[in-house]
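User: My instructor asked us to take a sequence, write out its structure as tokens, and then describe one feature of it. I'm not sure where to start. Here is the sequence I was given:
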Amino acid sequence: MTTAPTTETDESPQAVAPSPKRGLWSPLRPLVLRLHFYAGVLVAPFLLVAATTGFLYAASFQAEKILYSHEMTVPVGDEKLPISEQVTAARKAHPEGTVSAVRPSPKDDETTRVMLSGVPGIEETHTLAVFVDPYTAKVRGSLEQYGSTGALPLRTWIDEFHANLQLGQNGRLYSELAASWLWVIAGGGLVLWFSRRRTQRKIRGTTGRRRTLGLHGTVGVWAALGFFFLAATGLTWSTYAGAHIDELRTSLHQATPAISSAAGGEHSGHDSAAAEGDVEHGVGLDKVLASARAEGLGDPVEIVPPADAESGYVVRQVQRSWPTKQDAVAVDPSNGEVTDTVRFADYPVLAKLTRWGIDAHTGVLFGLANQLVLMALALSLILLILWGYRMWWQRGRASSFGRPIPRGAWQHVPAYILVPLMAAIAVLGYYVPLLGIPLAAFIAVDIALGEIAHHRGKRTYATAKRPS
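Assistant: Let's start with the prediction itself. The structure tokens for your sequence are:
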């Protein structure tokens, strides 16, 4: 299967045979064609799942607002109560667990979220979000929440299925495999499409496989840039490639700055009743929030209580839509003074690009417009996969799947091109192992099958020539 254009001339085995006069592209084209075809066929099921769940995830932002409107929104009142009173009301309704974070009402018609960790029945990596009316301190409900974007049950389920098929850490390999190969398939398709003569790219007036090819190629060309972006940003937080990207950023001094929550002052570590999750430790939430406001941290913000007696509060902005608000301050619980500040404006360039890339990939950077673009890309990928399989079927004259692209294309690539190409693939495979390992396995199997077929052909020929 393919996610970007293939070519109609891939039916001809003569495409593999070298011509007397040819440029650099002539020996490479059959190799790109074979890689595009087989990579598409083998990776298509993973891409289809990723595209379908990605479409649903992009739509889930708006669905979440409708489904959980009672918990998320309130009638606008006269004046919001102090955040400490709202948290007290939440704790009376839900005394279980500990307070891990508080998100004060960011808008006049939105509730305050009090997040509780260690609640029985809630996954360890999730929290229980208690929704409080900021004007009356009435609890409007509670829902399981996941992630820094505050995903509620519907979006959480779709997000985890998209990321790991609900299989945990091991399931993340599927999405990394899809992201690793998406740009390769799309790039190969682009090269093949633009190598065709202009007259062979048209759709109007064509039928059968040629029309399917035209649709496949045209949509693939328009969507290719989006596929490159999704692949690159998806790899930034993948298991293996993501780790290599983090190492590279760190070595270039481009890692995301971290706020220091160590409490300062002579009374640090000696405050009474200081314990993990003690949200009213020291000067309390109201003073902490006021100190953060004085440093210019506007809504939406999240307040994280001290982790222990040696730590302070951390208040950070959590707006990932444009313009991004990601400033953070640490506040000493003994006196309410700010002890550390991290400004998003001071982030290294790669840290900013990573933040923006991930947020655009997840549909939060530009809100609804961002989500509509993601849905369009996901739908395009689904159509490209279906058209790709249809072309394969049509190669078999609509009665069965067609024969594969002839092997041995790599044998016709000159050494001065093949050697640097293989070296580049080896380096890329190291940093993106779920691209490099499958590609190495494919090449090894392809060579082995070619040798087996070659020896069988020699034996058959020898038998046919032997006199009876």
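For the description part of your assignment, you could build on this observation: The chain has a mean pLDDT of 86. Try explaining in your own words what that tells you about the chain.
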